[in-house]
Amino acid sequence: MSREEAARALLESVHKKAAAPPPDWVDEPIPSVAERRMMRSDQTKKRKFVQQMRRRGVDLKSWWYREMIDTPSPFTETMTLFWHNHFTSGLRKVKSPQLLYRQNMMLRRHAAGNYRAFLHDILRDPAMLLYLDNAKSRKGQPNENLARELFELFTLGEGQYTEQDVKEAARALTGLSLRREDGAFMERPFAHDRGEKTILGETGYFDGDDVVEIVLRREQSAKFITEKLWRRFIVTEPTPDDIRRLATRFRANDFELSPLLAEILSHEAFSSSENIGTRIKSPVELMVGTVRLFDLDTSDDRVLVRLGFALGQDIFEPPNVKGWPGGEAWITADTLLRRQQMLRLAFRGIDGIKRIKPLVGNTRALAAKVLLPLEPSPETLKIEDDEDYLLALLLEPSYQLS
After folding, report:
1. Cα distance between residue 52 and residue 244, in whole Å
2. CA dist 248 to 223, 225, 254, 281, Å?
3. Fewer CB atoms < 10 Å away: N or C end of the chain?
4. Quick one: CA dihedral 255, 236, 370, 390, positive or negative?
């Protein structure tokens, strides 16, 4: 395929729904305020509830790993994970696996869709409203968290707004909340500040949807998301002309993500030798990639949940509102040792994952090309025993790269 054909094939593979069956509790209503109050007053019920939430959190993470392993569209999961790290929410704060499941469904629905529609839906996402404390934000007592992250992390970046812009946008976002009975989004009209606001130089009687449109009218919003997507797929620095050209087309396409992604993936920088083997795989990429590459039998996906936690990427639990920093932050003396231990365990087999099958036939000649983005070391090439050779390939530093 040409670069353009390959990019088009990837984008045409994107699915808006997950294929793996979800845990059987995802449609259960979340506990009401009265139920939570009762559980807090009864230590036995509180303990059982906390244990149930922990089990369901593991169930939720196991479900996503299963989806990543079995999906016919790995690019869908790549983008869903990207947005999970862009629009962060976590179980510890949200305290509802059901709402995080619903958010994951929303992230994949918009994975390569329209960024304007994505932002409007984010302001209506119950998990996000809880995570950023907007559910109780009301006139006279606005919470600034959602407004600040909408500017800084979702659309514009640091230094592109003032503290007064945050305060005014927080007023516009008051009243966006959720029904405690079932966790569905709802607007509380009596909690909304209907007064006049001035945001990023525009004045009016704004609400949350108005804030999104005001932000998207700034050229910086298109540049911000364009550069972030570029850095996800291309390690080499973009030129100002690259970002300006791509962002201009992004705006001209009414913030459709698919054409932007197609241009990035088909850009000559993406497939250049300078971009190959220079990006450190995240723990999820490393684990899921290994399982898929060797078609490993994972009878218990909870082992991947434990490994992800040990390697520093506990899905549905990003470290903070900025998500996982990625890049060189994935590798420390401790995590590198754990990564190598994980690969040794996968090679030999552990509870929940059957061992990697030995090389057969002419597989040895192809193994290095399939497994590594760079040439293996001369010492590895000298290994004559097929089993030792395969393990050595897995332990090559470049197996950690993409």
Report:
1. 49
2. 8, 12, 10, 30
3. N
4. negative
> Can you tell me the distance from the alpha carbon of 94 to that of 91, in angstroms, rounded to the nearest whole number?
5
Provide the phi-psi class of 32: left if phi over 0, else alpha when psi is between -120 and 50, else beta. Answer: beta
| Cα separation, 236 vs 106, whole angstroms | 31
Q: Which of 236, 277, 274, 269 is CA-nearest to residue 375?
A: 277
How many residues are there in the chain? 402
Longest dimension (CA), the chain: 76
Q: Taking 70 as the threshold, does the pLDDT of residue 112 lie above it? A: yes
Give Cα 9 to chain centroid, integer Å: 22
**Model confidence pLDDT, tens digit, residues 204-230:** 999 999 999 999 999 999 999 999 999
Distances (CA, A) of 281 to 183, 197, 278, 401: 35, 44, 9, 5
Mean predicted confidence (pLDDT) in 56-62: 97
CB 130 within 8 A of CB 94: yes
Taken in order 63, 66, 72, 75, the sign of the CA dihedral is positive
* Structure token digits, residue 67: 């989806």
In one-letter notation, the amino acid at residue 321 is: V
pTM attached to this predicted model: 0.95
User: What's the chain's Rg over C-alpha atoms?
Assistant: 23
What are 250's two structure tokens? 């992004």
Token readout for 57 is 């959190």
